[in-house]
Amino acid sequence: MSDIDRARLGDLMRSETQRFVVTHPKSAAHAQETNSLLAGVPMPWMRRWPGPFPIVLDQASGARFTDIDGHEYVDLCLGDTGSMTGHAHPEIGAAVAKQMARGSTVMLPTHDAAWVAQEMARRFGLPKWQFALSATDANRFALRFARAITGKPMVIVHDWCYHGTVDETLVIQLGDRTISRPGAIGPQVNPALTTRVVQFNDLADLERAAAHGDVACMLIEPALTNIGIVLPEPGYLQGVREITRKHGIILIIDETHTICAGPGGCTKEWGLEPDMFVIGKTIGGGTPVGAYGMSAAVAAQVEALHDDDGIDVSGVGGTLAGNALSMAAVRATLTHALLPEQFVHTKHMATAWTTGVQQAYERRGLAWSVQQLGSRAEYWFCPPPRTGADAAAAVDHDLDAFMHLWAINRGILLTPFHNMALFSPFHVAQDVERHTEQFDEALTALTGR
Ligand SMILES: Cc1ncc(COP(=O)(O)O)c(C=O)c1O
Question: For ligand 1, atom 9, which residue shows the shortest CA distance?
Fold first, then answer.
């Protein structure tokens, strides 16, 4: 935890909360009136914004949105990556409207699906693809296939990973044990029976976990993004590949967030060689979709399973997965967004944001850090963490909440749960300047210098 004066932080939080309440009367009234929504929100995480109630959306477009109180915000959260293409993207909207008028879900393949699979193969380098409605589901299906073709039960993940609400992955490492992640409710089975947890950037830990000979797959983000950004040290990902190959472990790379590194994610940028690949959120341009790809070798084994007459519903898929509407949305997204020239702009924005934060720290002699991964960046109140465990230990919830509420009160939305900013092609230099200015003022308020 950072050595900020806690009494001062408490006073500042009280005055920011008061300012928030006074300036958001309609959102406050909405929170009182939503009796039929469990806990007042349609999805539990929407309670986790700073302030006594969430702001209520009016509409979003490009890099901005407005709330029902009439305030406009620069959106640096972008639906926690679901709208990385920018909100209400005109071409994606038009393609979705067109397909809606032609039938959205028929449980039949379409030309769009074939086009999308081919484009995914080109971008990410894996030849065979299928679709789901979320990255969570795509991860679930990838784990299931990995177990089916290896005949092995265990999964390896990184400490403090996040891959969606997938039971096997909602875990942390405690000594040499796997336990449920704090705050994960109702785990289905003891997660030690399904999962071994290793530290990011620790190949010896991975070698120990892999050597049991019972591991089907290792599911990773190539850089951790969900406990703040934790970057791989040189040689780490190559080591992961060597160890997983040596032990016959299927390496699944989940690029749902790390697509921020470039149009082909870290896999293309860094020359990674996954056996399976998962992505969701961004590729739908704001519509729900997930996808999983696989190498020719894995695909051959999966196809052999499907040829078995005994396979019934298989435990993979869903009636709406791969629906015509999703496929039209992904086709439009990959045609008009997430393009190389757009990444040049979004990375430039993220670099300017990072520089603004870094300079604000340096001016005050604070040994805190900021990390960038492509078009995503994140600030810390500590030096850069090496592992998920270091990162989790450094989280300062009170300080995070203050920084987020201060930003909201000045028209900027950051991703909740950590201090992340993400850029779309619609963000402009003034958006970054606005963040830098209010960030600097927040540090002055906190430190008195
Ligand atoms: C790396 C990663 N994988 C999977 C998911 C799950 O995505 P969804 O909640 O859209 O299923 C997330 C969500 O944040 C994620 O960050």
Answer: 164
